[in-house]
Structure formats: C-alpha cells, structure tokens
Amino acid sequence: MRKYPLVLLLILLTGLIAGCISSNSTTTTPTESIPSETQTLSPTTTSSPTVTHTETPTESPKKYDTLELLQEVSEIRQFSYASNATISMRITMEQEGIVQKDQVNLTILEEGYMDFESRSAWINSTTMGMPGGPSSKLSQIIVGDITYIQTSAGWIETEDANTSRFFWEYNLASLARKYLSREPDERREDDFLTLIYYPESSDIEPLARMYFAATPDTAIQVGNGTVEFYFKDGKLIGGKISYTVVSETVTDDPMLGTMIITQEGSWNAVIWVSDINKKKSVEKPST
Q1: To pair with 247 at 20 to 30 A between CA atoms, which of 9, 95, 145, 193?
Q2: Distance between CA 92 and CA 104 in Å, rounded?
Q3: Per-position b or e across 13-26, b if 16+ CB within 10 A of its CB
Q4: What is the pLDDT of residue 87?
Q5: Contact 6, 213 (CB under 8 A)
Q6: Residue of 262, 252, 257 whose CA lies nearest to 218
Q7: Which residues face 129 on adjacent strands?
Q8: Residue 50 belongs to some domain of the structure
Q9: What is the pTM of this model?
Q10: Which residues pair with residue 150 across a beta bridge?
C-alpha cells in the first residue's frame, strides 16, 4: 500500500482561523504595614499614644457586564490579529486489508486583517509539521465573496462563496458578537476578563469541517468544544477555540483503489488582537 506523504496531510489540514489565549495569572496582595505602638511612662502618669490608621481608597477596576462588552465588539469595524493553532492527530489509513497508523502534530501560525466595512481581508499562514517536519505557506486575500489564493504559479481566483463566508462568520470578532448575545457559561477575572462558552457540537462542526474534511462526503464528529473571549478594560484582546474531532474519509482511486482515512485528535487555537479600528489597505491581486 502506498503511504500518503505528510505534505498531502499538511495540505488537507492547512487553513485559516480567526479566533483565542489561555493564560494563567497570579495576583499578589500586598501586606499592610501597621505602625508599632509606643508607651511613655512617668512617675505620676501612664499614657498610651493614639494610633491612627489612614487608609487610602483604591479604585476598583470597572466590572463590565455582557451587554456592555457586546456593544464594544459590535463597534469593531476592522481588526488585526495573530494566532497560534496546534493540531494533534492520530491518522489511520486502511487499504486492501492493510492498516497503517501515524501520529501527526502540526502548528499553524497565522496573521490576518479583516475589514467589515469594505468586506476585505488578508490572511498569511505557515503550517509546520512538528517536530522539525515540512512546512507550507498560504496567503489569501478576500474581497467581498471572492477569495484569491497565492500559489507557486501566481494568484488564483475562487468564487466559492462558502470559503469567504467561513472567514466572515468564524473570525474572532464575529464569534464574539454571536456568543455575547447570551451570558457565558463561566466568567473569570484575573489580569483580564475571561468569558467561557461551551457551544453545541453543531456550532463547532463547520469549523472542524473546514480543516479536517478532505472531501464533501467526509464524516465529522466533534466534541469538548470551548470558546473563550478575553477582555481588558472592556476591550477585546484575544480568545481561544478548542475541540476534539474524529473524521473519516473514503476515497476510491482508479490507481490506488479504495482507501479509508480516519483522523482522531484535537485542535487548540489561541488568538491575540493587535489593533482595532485601524484601517489598512487590501488590494485585489492580479490573476
């Protein structure tokens, strides 16, 4: 049985995501120093000085409710971001009774810019096999419903509305607008505010299908979905998306015969927002 090269797997898994960061923080409470008392003695009287404690009021950080944060993200017209996604997959390939298994670990580093006013965007990503595996780069420009993909032969144009729709629906800002319409499942406040949601599998499946479906007929199952949003002083600063996935693809090639490819593993992506409402140029490439 022929073995699919890892480069093919990289192509199948390379994609884009606009979406979150998990961060642990520790808050140290300063210890207040209390003045020591002194006592003065004389032959006729005994007196104790009065100790006066003066507390300087400290301003507590403002607590933002979900509706206030929703209003904030609703005013995002443009934003830039950087993301780091890790994929850990056990891949099983079966052909003519022969079973071959591989462990594939990938990292996808991505930088992007999205402009909701002009409906234009650019995304640059690098997918790397870990550790020390092959890597591939992907550049995309979106103008309206048209996506331009850079290849070794130059830019190619695709009018597949599903591709552009994915970017406009599954970027971090759009997801925040969707989820902040309801209260989070968990709320944590440390160095920054974390809102945590546990979405239905149907909400995560389109995201998993974009990355793990090799064909339109690929069967996808997702679980353990988590979507997080991070805010500092009421501003969206990042987020995280994670889930587990199982996919099965059946291919029927005249030369290779029937092959069943099963992928089982996890996706974790963290996203930091670098700027908001800072307009940048997005130009349609020459094709």
Answers
A1: 145
A2: 11
A3: bbbbbbbbbeeeee
A4: 95
A5: no
A6: 262
A7: 106
A8: no
A9: 0.77
A10: 155
Report which residue type is found at 22: S
Residues in the chain: 287
The helix (run of H) or strand (run of E) holding residue 185 is: none
Least Cα distance to 241 among 284, 204, 209, 206 occurs for 204
Where in the sequence is the domain holding 102, given as residue range(s)? 6-19+63-138+170-276
Domain assignment of residue 152, yes or no: no
Residue with tokens 């690098």: 126
Residue 81 lies in a domain: yes
Per-residue pLDDT tens for 150-171? Answer: 988 889 998 788 888 889 999 9
Residue 35: its pLDDT value, please?
Answer: 37
216 Cβ contact list (under 8 Å, min separation 6) = none
CB 6 within 8 A of CB 13: no
The secondary structure of residue 62, as a DSSP letter, is P
Q: What does the block give as tokens for 183?
A: 């209260």
Which one-letter DSSP state was computed for residue 44? S
Give residue-wise pLDDT tens across range 180-227.
999 999 999 989 999 999 999 999 999 999 888 888 889 999 999 999
| Count of domains forming the chain | 1
| Residue 177 main-chain phi, psi, to 5 deg | -60, -40
Helix (H) or strand (E) holding 226: strand 219-232
Q: In which residue are the tokens 């103008």 written? A: 143
Is position 154 within any domain? no
